[in-house]
Amino acid sequence: MSILTWTWILTGLSFALYIYIAYASRAKSTGDFYAAEQQVPAFMNGMATGADWMSAASFISMAGLISFMGRDGSFYLMGWTGGYVLLALLFGPYLRKYGKFTIPQFMADRYYSNTIRVISLVCAIFVSFTYVAGQMRGVGVVFSRFMGLSIDMGVVVGMALVFFYATLGGMKGITYTQVAQYCVLIIAYLIPAIFISLQFTGNPIPQLGYGSTITPEGAALLNDPATQGKYLLDVLNGIQKDLGFANYTDGVRPRIDVWFITMSLMIGTAGLPHILIRFFTVPKMRDARSSAGWALIFIALLYTTAPAIAVFARTNFIKSINNVAYADAPSWFKNWEKTKLVAWKDKNGDGIMQIAKGAWDSDKSANEVKIDQDIMVLANPEIAKLPNWVVGLIGAGGLAAALSTAAGLLLVISAAISHDLMKGIITPDMSEKAELMWARIAAGVAVCIAGLFGIYPPGFVAQVVAFAFGLAAASFFPCILMGVFNKKANKEGAMVGMIVGIVFVAAYIIYFKFVNPAVNNKDGWWLGISPEGIGTVGAALNFICMYVVGKFTKEPPQEIQDLVGNLRYPGKLSPPSSH
């Protein structure tokens, strides 16, 4: 069967499963909709968290980034994984003990102010929409290549599916759907990696395979007998140098920027609203920590495989098209060319495709091939000439990754509107039925806006998601950390810190990525810090503002200080009075 047929079959079966689960576990109360009645087992919550976490950025784009950036791309692995350690140690158990449905609600109670609730819900919506843009773009890319639809139409189909199970099931439906999506995406990610690792090195473990030597079969696959017996990474380094690039295993990005990006991704992970709310769904405080541990295990399966896929894809990609006549171009290139995500421009008129260092659209550059980094994982099975069912499976996995995270983000937006704005501020006496209606309306509107972001994306998937982490790092992380561990942190400091942090980061990103993108190099950035890493600076400004403003303003009420003091010790909490 063709790739298109296999993709339709595998995607159709997985979509049918998601819809059935959403219907069977549909929400009947606000407790179901926001927190699945806090009855999700730790193991399943860890798996759902893994699916929520392993978005289109992780599944589709991360290995693509690493394949182009080489060693520098490791900050995505270190930052995103390290963030879960922070979550398990600093936030998960305490947020679960606090027992609220949403982060803005926690912020409002801890900082005894509805004003900060509004600021928090605005930040949550801002961060979530920035993040969801990457997910919907990923959905469109998958539909475009594997299912014969345009990117825009693919986004619309994805919107319809997410609308159904996010609005019907809420957190309960999303959680159990994400368990199924995790199973789909991890199988889809690992099978091609295992196949290609066997092809190149005879080692079925990708994490070991990309550090192994090339077998005779691998040398034949690369059409280069001289590579036999050599280490795969050494071969890729040689290919890179021949084309004018730096060694794949060398880092070229300034170390200060690598550090700032890694830290921004770590604390951004610990401040993402759609991940934090997962800790509200488990029965007990200890289950929150346990679910974070399970999530790390499930995430590690994909994250330790990503560098291997990056190396396999980069080597195969270059070897399959560089110095090849366009008339003899492999089928994968012609297939992806239809999506406009790869292109060839014959600059010297010889009819041969040449890859070289330099901008594709510059006449002074010898590079004639343009490729969107987001397709490297999706195209990898085709480049390696794997069976059509494997290619179709990778499409189903990419959709599972993007849709699972999109659903979690849309729930955050929905809860911010219905629970924190409508119920919490505008109409406190709203009935549960009316609140549930508002939650579903808000989710529907959010899906439509997310679709627009997917059709008109502000950048490639992982880059857009990295910006969301910067915004989360600068806004939520400092305030939640201080709220849990510092009894003296007050509402004035939290308000000023959040506003200063997120405004600074948003302004920096907007300027260097949209207003003046030409200054997109280490000389133009402030202190050599890229927009992806500026969230660390924003978080530092937030901490400084909280501390300084807190010194010159009134301390929190005694009941709040007692609440914070008891939060980290066994026993029940006495909820604060309404503010």
Structure in words:
The chain has 579 residues and is mainly α. It folds into two domains: 3-313 and 386-567, Sodium/glucose cotransporter, CATH 1.20.1730.10; 320-376, no CATH class. Helices cover 69% and strands 2% of the residues. It has 23 helices and four strands. It has helices at residues 3-24, 30-35, 42-53, 56-69, 74-98, 103-110, 114-146, 151-201, 206-209, 216-221, 232-242, 255-269, 273-276, 285-303, 306-321, 331-337, 376-383, 388-426, 432-455, 461-485, 491-515, 534-551, 558-567, and strands at 324-325, 342-344, 352-353, 369-371. The strands form two sheets. It has a two-stranded antiparallel ribbon. A two-stranded antiparallel ribbon has the order 2-4. Helix 4 crosses helix 20 (461-485). The chain is globular. It starts with a helix and ends in a 12-residue tail after the last helix. The model has no long low-confidence stretch (mean pLDDT 83).
